[in-house]
Amino acid sequence: MQCTRKIEEDLYWIGSEKRNYSLFENILPIHGVSYNSYLLLDEKTVLLDTVDHSVSKQFLENLEYKLDGEKIDYLIVNHMEPDHSSVIEEVILRYPDVKIIGNMQTAKMLKQFFDFDVDSKMQIVKDGEILSTGKHNLKFVFAPMVHWPEVMFTYDETSKILFSADAFGTFGALNGNLFNDDLDFEKTYLNKARRYYANIVGKYGMQVQNALKKLEGTEINKICPLHGPIWRNNLSYILEKYEKWSKYEPEDNSVVIIYSSVYGNTENVANVLANKLSQKEIKNIKVYDASNTDVSILVSESFRCSNIAIISTTYNMEVFPKIAEYIDHIRRMNLQNRTISIIENATWAPGISKSIKDQISQMKNMKILEETLSIKSSIKYEQEEKLNKIVEDIATDLK
Ligand SMILES: Cc1cc2nc3c(=O)[nH]c(=O)nc-3n(C[C@H](O)[C@H](O)[C@H](O)COP(=O)(O)O)c2cc1C
Ligand SMILES: [Fe+2]
Ligand SMILES: [Fe+2]
Questions:
Q1: Which domain holds residue 231?
Q2: Pick from 182, 215, 246: which residue ends a domain?
Q3: Which ligand has an atom closest to residue 225 CA?
Q4: Which residues line ligand 1 (CB under 6 A)?
Q5: What predicted TM-score, i.e. pTM, was given to this entire model?
Q6: Residue 114: helix, strand or coil by DSSP?
Q7: Cβ atoms 351, 344 nearer than 8 A
Q8: Minimum-distance ligand to the CA of 200?
Q9: Which protein residue has the closest C-alpha to ligand 1 atom 27?
């Protein structure tokens, strides 16, 4: 059965969603996601992006239902990643008169992914170009690397709606409630939205900044992203989050403690550290065992917090693999402006603090607190003073 939703008089959500999907991009664990597609029924009919092939049955049914016998005049391709573009060929087969709207990069990728005659189907647009579809004037705002190189936003100048591609999206299937004001975003989606941002576009903060700058002064009434709820009020909430995340500014003055431990002795140090930090009135501390936490959560929490304590066991003369994986991921995601504390555990010989320090030092604007602690198998009472110093230093840094 069709499953669509009216957004405005002539605009409809015709996307679909799935929950039986464990790995987004075959790497990020999730419990569901939505693929949003939009249909504008102006004098010309305009389809904005499609969906992942796995949910195409629902999407094609929605499309046919809302078109009600009409043809599609334009298909705007804001993003070529296959979770939004893999149904394009099927759409062309069903609606052969459709003109595809995209940029030069879009055309190149269409040719790479598909075998149909792209040139004869395409209308190439330039940055800032406007397409009139009757009542609506659609402006294309290029947003390169706000996930992929070809990404563009479509801004409807008539209804002041921004179709933002992957930007402002989130993991998580919809629960019927399509609009942000129908649900408690902070409670239901914020952690998912942060993990989505940090692990998908986190690396491209500067490009996100460029896109946000291009939108400065533009009146926006609604944001229609390709995943998750549509924003129709309190837009400043999500815009401010993007402002922070893209500048690599922490959201919380708090500490995330990320540790590895084979036999529990290093875990004990992590627990003691958290306990002591809490007694310094530090709120929202989180402690994660890197071995049983997906690295995408560790990355997301590192985007949230101003301070990170890395507590690693030494493993065959190297940093414990899960901690090494975590450090590699925050490096890949270009994380900056954080204060790091380092504690090592080594039983055989000197440990891996230096190696961690060297890796963190190569990242931008990372402050490494001087006081470190080297545990030999288990922490001893005489080391408590050093641990207290680490706690003091973190508390001072947070002020
Ligand atoms: C497989 C394995 C390899 C280890 N390799 C080293 C090493 O190269 N150098 C070292 O000083 N300690 C090494 N350790 C000891 C750990 O770094 C750590 O001191 C020990 O596991 C106690 O901490 P835990 O109770 O938190 O696991 C190793 C431990 C294991 C299980
Ligand atoms: Fe994408
Ligand atoms: Fe996407």
A1: 5-246
A2: 246
A3: 3
A4: 261-266, 313-317, 345-349, 351, 377
A5: 0.96
A6: coil
A7: yes
A8: 2
A9: 262
- On whether both 213 and 97 belong to a single domain, the answer is yes
* CA–CA gap between residue 289 and residue 267 (Å, rounded): 8
Residue 260 in contact with residue 289, Cβ under 8 Å?
yes
Q: Which of 348, 355, 378, 383 to mutate to test the pocket of ligand 1 (most atoms within 8 A of CB)?
A: 348
Counting the structural domains of the chain, the total is 2
User: From ligand 2's centre to the CA of 198, what distance in Å?
Assistant: 13
Pocket test for ligand 1, best of 260, 262, 317 (most atoms within 8 A of CB): 262
CATH of the domain at 291: 3.40.50.360
Do both 181 and 326 map to the same domain? no
The 10s digit of each residue's pLDDT in 314-355 is 999 999 999 999 999 999 999 999 999 999 999 999 889 999
pLDDT of residue 197: 98
* Mean pLDDT value across the chain: 98
How far are the Cα atoms of 60, 258, 267, 286 from residue 274, in angstroms, in the given order?
51, 11, 11, 8
Helix (H, G, I), strand (E, B) or coil at 289: strand
287-314 confidence digits (pLDDT tens): 999 999 999 999 999 999 999 999 999 9
> What is the end-to-end Cα distance of the chain in Å, rounded?
56
The last residue of one of the domains, among 246, 280, 303, is 246
CATH number of the domain residue 80 falls in: 3.60.15.10
Instruction: Give the atom of ligand 1 at the shortest distance from the alpha carbon of 268.
Output: 26
Q: Note whether 199 and 313 are same-domain residues.
A: no
pLDDT, tens only, 18-34: 999 889 999 999 999 99
Statement to judge: residues 240 and 386 lie in one domain: no
Q: Are 39 and 175 within one domain?
A: yes
